[in-house]
Specification:
The structure holds 2 protein chains of 2 kinds. Chain A is α/β, with parallel strands linked by helices. Chain A has 4 helices and 6 strands; from the N terminus they run E-E-E-H-E-H-E-H-E-H. Chain A has a 6-stranded mixed beta sheet with strand order 1-2-3-4-5-6, sandwiched between helices. The radius of gyration of chain A is 13 Å and the shape is globular. In chain A, 49% of the residues are buried. Chain B has 3 domains: 114 residues, no CATH class; 222 residues, Phosphatase 2c, domain 1 (4-Layer Sandwich); 149 residues, 2-Layer Sandwich (Heat Shock Protein 90). Chain B contains 13 helices and 18 strands. In chain B, the strands form 4 sheets. Chain B has a 5-stranded antiparallel beta sheet with strand order 4-13-12-9-10. In chain B, strand 9 and strand 10 form a beta hairpin. The chains are: A alpha/beta, B alpha+beta. Chains A and B meet through helix 2 and helix 3 of A and helix 11, helix 12 and helix 13 of B.
Chain lengths: 118, 548
């Protein structure tokens, strides 16, 4: 599925965890795409949703806002939102915005999975 | 038994005879002194005797054989009675020619059996000896060639400039890529009085050591004459006179000589049969025309002198044949039109060369055997007096302008703004993390300008400017203020956002402030200018502290 230069792919990691692979840009314009992917990832009752940013090209403040929206949603649904594959630059941005306190940032899917106990 | 003739090797592919000292010789026991040397006859592969011997089951009686063969006639005339083919693995590699027996009796059945056995054993041994010798000769030739290439490469490297000139307001880049059989390409930068600089790109016809020596000689002549004579026309004229008597037959040198005055961008140049330089202006790519005979061909040559001025932002490319004459696997040439087209895209000096080489490698494909040396010299005027003067803006005097561009205020163009700034400031060599942060800041500021200042209307432009002033890089993003003043935004707070007390969005200004060393907002009429400032000096290690 693509919107402009963005595409996402949902993968089930374990019965209780799913991965959303992000490719391309995350901006305000990615909202419908990411919201829909989040729904699919949560369909089977996943307790943890991992955003894989290894394919991320560009994320702006609109994209940060979008992460906040997903975070609100995950907290409401009692899920854990996690991130892997972030480069140093975007790690720093998540740290500056203190999003990293709410979104667990991990080096690998395996690390995220074990932290989630899922 | 009588004498046994020397063995000649007849090669299937053509008439090559192994040199006499390589020939295996079989000596018979001479019973008397009348053993005169027999005929040394080569059998051409087209001669019917060749096919006959190749297929013959054993010893062949020369006198009884009925064949329309020149070789056979020659052998018979030379007194050959019996031919013993030497065949191994179906290939005729030679033959023994035997004269009459000393006893004048015919060869007996036993004699023939003995000869057959001898041939069957000798043939493979001789073939092995032939192969070993061929290989030794080949290896020797290859080693000689490789040694020569090493010497040529050494000479070449000795004479190419070790470093590029550092010119204020100019990006200078050069590339020399030798072909396997090193050609005679060269380039040079010659410092001249008053801060001017002589730029040479040349190509000696021929390859290997002779070309490298002529290249070295030409370069030393140019280095000697350039500071003294100053004018490019006079330098080439004089170089031609000096090189003409020294030049080996069928060799000559093409060469373009250009003098650059870095401060004004003025170039004066003359050409001795070399490729015409390309200049990229804001709207097009043009050739700097100049003609003249190559150096070392004819006496008394004149070289017309030409002039041009490179404005800030413009670049010039000097290049040898190797690039434009490279072939792709289908045999098509890279060509001038392709080069001209690639030139048209704005890039700082070193990028242009990288880009050209990338395109070249894409064009020629894998496993390319480079036919000729490739030399590229690119100069881009990055900034200069004219811009500062043209602006007539005392506030911004002393600035070095890296970029000045106006973009349509269309949603999504913040990416374009970011890319343009990134490209323009790349030569500053910012530490990668700082470079990335500035990119994010530029994109956020441009997005604000597009959304508020232009209201996403492509007809309302956003101005972007990148300058170096003192030791700071300043990127200014100016909008038209269509959306009115932006007002003070509340500092975003993740806790408030998660609690629903703030909207999820609204991170733009926060990000900008944290991505650069300083941010200033000024107003002009209804619009505003956001200035993003990065200190270029006195930055500890470039890694900003990471905190909430």
């Amino acid at each position: 599925m693509t919107t402009g230069t963005t595409s996402v792919e949902v993968r089930r990691l374990s019965p209780a965890a799913a991965v959303i692979e992000v490719h391309g840009d995350i901006t305000a314009a990615s909202e419908p795409l990411l919201a829909e992917a989040y729904t699919r990832a949560s369909d089977d009752g996943a307790k943890a949703v991992v955003l894989d940013f290894a394919g991320l090209d560009y994320m702006n403040s609109g994209g940060i806002g979008l992460l906040v929206t997903l975070l609100v949603r995950s907290q409401r649904q009692g899920q854990r939102l996690m991130a892997v594959g972030l480069n140093d630059h975007y790690r720093q941005i998540l740290s500056l915005t203190r999003l990293d306190e709410a979104i667990g940032i991990y080096d690998s899917e395996a690390a995220a999975l074990s932290a989630a106990g899922a | 038994m009588t004498f046994i003739e020397s063995i000649r090797r007849t090669v299937g592919r053509g008439a090559k005879t192994v040199e006499p000292d390589a020939e295996p010789t079989v000596t018979a026991v001479p019973a008397a002194s009348q053993t005169a040397p027999g005929p040394a006859v080569d059998i051409a592969p087209t001669d019917p005797l060749f096919a006959y011997l190749q297929a013959a089951p054993g010893v062949v009686d020369a006198e009884r054989l009925e064949l329309e063969s020149a070789a056979l006639a020659e052998l018979r005339a030379g007194g050959v009675k019996v031919i013993v083919p030497l065949v191994t693995q179906g290939e005729l590699i030679g033959a023994l020619y035997l004269g009459p027996r000393l006893s004048d009796q015919d060869y007996s059945t036993d004699d023939r059996k003995l000869l057959s056995t001898l041939a069957a054993q000798a043939a493979p041994a001789i073939r092995v000896a032939q192969l070993v010798r061929e290989q030794a000769v080949e290896i020797q030739a290859r080693e000689r060639l490789e040694q020569e290439m090493r010497v040529a490469t050494l000479i070449q490297q000795q004479f190419l400039p070790r470093e590029l000139p550092q010119l204020h307001d100019w990006q200078v880049a050069a590339y020399y890529g030798p072909a396997r059989a090193v050609g005679g390409d060269f380039y040079d930068f010659i410092p001249l009085p008053d801060g001017r600089i002589g730029i040479v790109v040349g190509d000696v016809t021929d390859k290997g050591v002779p070309a490298a020596l002529i290249m070295a000689r030409t370069q030393s002549v140019l280095r000697g004459e350039a500071p003294r004579l100053q004018s490019p026309a006079k330098v080439l004229e004089r170089a031609n006179e000096i090189l003409l008597p020294e030049m080996p037959a069928r060799m000559f040198v093409t060469c373009l000589y250009m003098i650059l005055e870095p401060e004004t961008g003025r170039v004066v140049y003359a050409n001795a049969g070399h490729n015409l330089p390309y200049v990229r202006t804001a709207d097009e790519v043009i050739e700097l025309r100049a003609t003249g005979m190559p150096l070392g061909l004819l006496p008394g040559m004149d070289y017309p002198e030409h002039e041009a001025v490179l404005a800030p932002g413009q670049s010039v490319l000097l290049y040898s044949d190797g690039l434009v004459e490279a072939h792709d696997p289908a045999g098509d040439m890279f060509g001038f039109p392709r080069l001209k087209e690639l030139m048209a895209v704005e890039r700082p000096g070193s990028d242009l060369i990288d880009h050209l080489l990338d395109e070249l490698h894409g064009f020629v494909g894998r496993g390319w055997d480079q036919e000729d040396d490739i030399t590229l010299v690119a100069l881009q005027r990055t900034g200069g007096r004219e811009v500062a003067l043209a602006d007539h803006d005392p506030e911004h005097a002393g600035e070095r302008v890296l970029l000045k561009v106006s973009l349509p205020g269309a949603a999504g163009n913040e990416r374009l703004a970011m890319d343009r700034v990134a490209e323009a400031i790349e030569p500053l060599g910012l530490e990668p993390a700082r470079f990335e942060r500035l990119k994010t800041a530029v994109s956020e500021a441009a997005m604000n300008a597009i959304e508020y200042g232009s209201q996403n209307d492509p007809a309302i432009p956003v101005e972007i400017e990148a300058v170096v002033v003192d030791d700071d890089l300043v990127v200014r993003i100016s909008d038209q203020g269509l959306g009115g003043p932006m007002g003070e935004a509340e500092e975003p707070d993740i806790d408030k956002k998660l609690a629903g007390e703030q909207k999820p969005r609204g991170w733009g200004l926060f990000l900008i402030k944290h991505m650069v060393d300083a941010m200033e907002v000024t107003t002009h009429g209804t619009g505003q200018t956001v200035s993003l400032i990065l200190h270029l000096k006195g930055v500890d290690d470039g890694s900003q502290s990471v905190q909430g």
